[in-house]
Amino acid sequence: MPETQHGGEKSFRGIPVSAGVCRGKLLVLGRARPAIAKVQLSDTAVNEEVNRLEKALVQTRQQILDIQRKVSERMGAEEGSIFDAHLLVLEDRTLLDEVVRVIREQKVNAEHAFHTVAERYANTLAAIEDDYLRERATDMRDVTTRVLNNLLGLVEEADLRHLKEPCIIISHDLTPSKTAQLDKRNVLGFATDVGSKTSHTAIMARSLRIPAAVGLQDASGQVETGQYGLLDGLNGVLIVNPTDQTLYEYGQLILRQATLRQRLNDILAEPAVTLDRHRILLNANIEQASDAEQVKANGAEGVGLFRTEYLFLNHDRLPGEDQQYQSYREAAAALKPLPVVIRTLDLGGDKFLAHMQMPSELNPFLGWRAIRISLQERDIFRAQLRAILRASAEGNIKVMYPMISGLDELKQANALLEEYKAELRQEKIAFDEHLQVGAMIETPSAAMVADSLAKRVNFFSIGTNDLIQYSLAVDRMNEKIAHLYEPTHPAIVRLIKTTVDAAHRHQVPVSVCGEMASDPVLAPLLLGLGVDELSAAPSLVPPLKFLIRRLKLSEAQQLAAFALECESAAEILSRCQELARAIAPSLFENK
Ligand code: PEP
Ligand code: MG
Predict the structure, then answer these.
(1) Relative to the CA of 442, which ligand 1 atom is closest?
(2) Which atom of ligand 1 is nearest to the CA of 309?
């Protein structure tokens, strides 16, 4: 890994995923627990070891009671009672007597004795064909980890919802659900060892407007909690113990960014129109209703993608129809008459729910995901579609299905939508009878049958994040093959063109809501290929508008014509860079 050192300064280079620069104390999460060593004790040390164990048990009990109280206050007594099972483990005399016996008889340290005995119990429970007992094995392992952390003097992993002071989070990985918990007031930024630009963790970071870098390889193993660091989300660099010179250079960069932001603010209220007067619709991607404010603040013209799964990830149980209705209604009402495209649940892949049984799969991105789940779990789909329909009475809502891979899925989803509409009519509940329906084009198969799909929808939205991973067979999460994840691959250019042409033959407009749309280098290529709308994280809308207002559609069309003939992803990319840098150089002054 390219790591440099100057006078105590250490830097780690990775992939930039969310712009911005921040400085502050580092908080390293999830450091693996050191191996539990077996220490042979002298006769006199044995009593002291038993005391250490007793103390760790008391400390653990106190910690669990604290968590139980907090959970009960926040979520109710029923959720709090989950921790009763954890407390029971600490009162299990058979287990504890056995640990004390091992310490005394074998004269070994408490960590080793506790770990060995508890693991044996947990393994026995886990092997029994009984869901209840298997759960107890999980409880036992949770409690064991706490007791061992206390014995080893390790600090418990921070509760990301309640950080006490502002810090930069450093972690090997951060799941989308953990990212969703980040308390923005205290998280200055985050950096992870793994990940890629289009992982949902990265997407969340952009949406939260937290500077972030991923793919820093082993940074989390090389830095310590409490060290001072600077995170550059524009270039994907983490600098620990920055020198005065580095801090000065970053001060200059921050000033240049502020000047650019001023120029972007000046055109917030202007339309996205090219120099040759071609109007482009610029929308925003959101994850929750409260993001609607950001949509307007950044001059977007609506929501092109409402990723509803965060409503599910952010809660400890499945949100019901009413709860979802409130959320969709809130977004639609806040933006009325601007459109809000609500995408139905896109779970699976890298998005899991702790409270929903999801199969463990060898290839989760090729597995039980998105519309495939919705079409099987009818109760979940019904609640969501009814909530969307009901909210459509209160604003300009459209619905969109994720990961359609063929006509049958689209037909089934549409048939269910009609069924739920009929229910609501019967119940005399209002909804928009003309609710527009869209399909995401994010599998190569959908692009190839776009003609058939276009006959049955009102709009398409190309999900390039997935379209690229599925077409090029490159896992979008894997930093080792990030160099193969090429949005300008000739295959991608041609699939987008095929989709746009099919759609336009049926007067169906095409949006792109994947990360490709938010890259000012790539947006002209999409527009040249005939894409009608772009949808990006709210904070990325102003630079796109700035670029479009300096672009001629004819130039974009020439670029697309070149790309359709070209055989090299690198050459296409380099042409895209040439054009973008020529028309909007100030967007690229990030060094
Ligand atoms: C996409 O795949 O491009 C997309 C927008 O959906 P998501 O990133 O949520 O998978
Ligand atoms: Mg997708």
Answers:
(1) 2
(2) 9
